Amino acid sequence: xxxxxxxxxRHKCDLRALHGSSRNLEPHVHPGRPSAxxxxxxxxxxxxxxxxxxxxxxxxxxxxxxxxxxxxxxPLFVLFFYVLSPIPYCIARRLVDDxxxxxxxxxxxxxxxxxxxxxxAFGLPIVFARAHLIEWGACxxxxxxxxxxxxxxxxxxxxxxxxxxxxxxxx
Length: 171
Fold this sequence. Notes:
single chain; mainly alpha; 7 helices; transmembrane helix; Leptin receptor overlapping transcript-like 1; 171 residues; flat
């Protein structure tokens, strides 16, 4: 028996008959309004998405600390790494010119320092779990939060890091 909930060719023909023509039945785009992909690329939408990602990452971190079966707050030390991770790259972008020959070395040093900070943020909960300061489940929640937070920080620099009219430098 044919399922009537799915549109068939007969339904499409009925829709064309309703409209009185065989024109394209695609949704109408209003002039002056951005289409859906263009509307998703606005700075406001990016900022809202990044703040949502940060909130989700912090939620995982707090769950790793505050759930009654874990109830230890040692993993909150990774908050220092969240604050420290963008600092070397921000300093490097302020100090060097893009035309300077030393800019590559300075930016590479900043990326190296940032990588060290990020690896430390992932290593600290593992060290805490191996030392039996926290449970392995809390470690997994903190590592999940780290992944989300650092992806959010990377997304922030990818979206707002260019030198255009809407960049992080004006904040």
